[in-house]
Amino acid sequence: MNEYLKKVQSIVWKDIIIELRMKEMLNTMLIFSILVILISSFAFGTFNQEMTQSIAPGVLWIAFTFAGMLGLGRSFISEKDRGCLQGMMLAPTDWSAIYIGKTIANLIFMSIMEILTLIVFVVLFNFGQIITSPLKFVLITIVGTFGFVSVGTLLSAVSVNTKTREMLLPVLLFPVIVPIIIGAVEATLSIITANGQFWGWVRILVAYDIIFFTVSALSFNYVIEG
Amino acid sequence: MKNRRKPKIIEIKGLSKNFGLTTALNQVNLKVDNFLTLFGPNGAGKTTLIRILSTLMKPSSGEAKINNIDVLNNPVRARSQIGVISHETHLYDGLKAEENLKFYGKLYNVKNLDKRINSLIKKVGLEHREKDRVADFSRGMRQRLSISRALLHDPLVLLLDEPYTGLDQHAAETLEQILDKFEDRTILQTTHNLERGLKLCCQVAILVDGEIVYKANAEEIGFEELKQIYNQKVQQNE
After folding, report:
1. Option in B76, B88, B133 nearest A83 (CB)
2. ipTM of the complex as predicted
3. Domain total in chain A
C-alpha cells in the first residue's frame, strides 16, 4: 500500500481505538440526535400523516447536522489536549494526510450515529412506511454526510486554535453547509413525495462534495500552520 | 559536559519572525554541531525558534537548515531528520504506551517497528508498563515515553523545548540520564532553568527579546558566571 495511505489508515485506526475506549464523540452525538427526534416526535406527533411527511426530512437532517457538529467540535479538541496534533504534524508526511484521516474517522462516527438515530426515527415517525426507496435514501445520506464532514473537519481544525472554539465552529459551519442541508432535505422529501427532483438534488450535493473536499484538503496545510 | 564530534548540523541565518507588530525573533544566527542549550526568559522567542526549526511555523525572513536540508523549502524531508521533545508529550491518553509508539512509528515509516519499540521502551525504563494506558501514567513516565516517541525514527537532531517543565527531581534526573546516553546526536535545548540547562551541554547561548545576546562554550563558563551574565543580559533588555 502507498505510504501516504498507510499513514491515513494509521490516523483512522488511532481515532477508532480511542473512540471505542473513551466514547466521547459517539455518546454525545447519539444522545443529542435521539433527543432531537424524541422532542420533535412529541411536538409534531399529533399532526396528520401528510404534515408528518413534509416535516420528517427536516427533523431528520436537523438531528444529523446538530449532533454531527457536536462530534466535529470534539474531533480536534482531543488532538490539542496534549499537543497530539503537533505530534502528527512533526511526522514526515504531507499534512493533508491528517485531514483525510480525520475526515474518514469522522465519517465513520457520523455514519454509526446516523444508523442508530434512524432506527429511532423509523419507529417514531413511521419513516419505513413513507419512504418509497430506501436505497435512494442511503445514497442521499452518504452524499450529504460526506459533504458535511468534509467541511466540518476543516472548520473544526480552524476553530480549535481559538479561545471561543465551541462557539466559533457552529458560526463558521452552518452558513457553509446550508446548501448541504437544503439539498439533503429536498432530496429526502422528493423520495417521500416521488416528485422527480431527486437526481437534480443529488447532482448538486455531489458537486458540493467534490469542490469542498478538494478545497479543504488543499487548504488544510495553511489552516493548521501556527 | 561531553566532547561531541559532529559536523555543523543546525544552521540558522538571519531568522526573523513577526506576529503583527511584535517581533518574536530578530535576525537570529546560530550554528549547532553538538549540544547547545539556549537560555532565555519567558517570551524571549525560544519556543518560536523550536517551532520554526521543527517546520511547524514559517519565519518572516531568514533561513534554517538541518543537515543541509532547508526546513522552509523541504519541510517533509527535514521532519524525518528531527525529533522533538517538549513539555507537551504528544501522547494520546486513550492509547496504551505501546500503541502510542506504534502509531507514531507508522507515521514515521519506521522499519522493524516492534523491535524498535521494545528497545526504546526498555531504554526509558517503561518495559513493565507498555501495555498500560498513558492516562494512568505520571508526568515523569509520560515524559520518558515522549522521549522514546521522539527517538523512534532515530533522528540526527533533537530539539528539546523546556523538557523539564512539570517534572519532579527524580523524573528530571532520569531525563538527564537518558539524554546523556545520546551523545552522537546534535541537540538544541531551550530552557530558563540555568542549572539543569548547563549540566549536559557543550555550548550555551542566551536569547533575549528575540536576539542572541550571548554565546560561549559550556566548558569555559561556570554556573555562577552564567547566572551573572544571564541576569545582566535580561536586565539590560527589560
Report:
1. B88
2. 0.90
3. 1
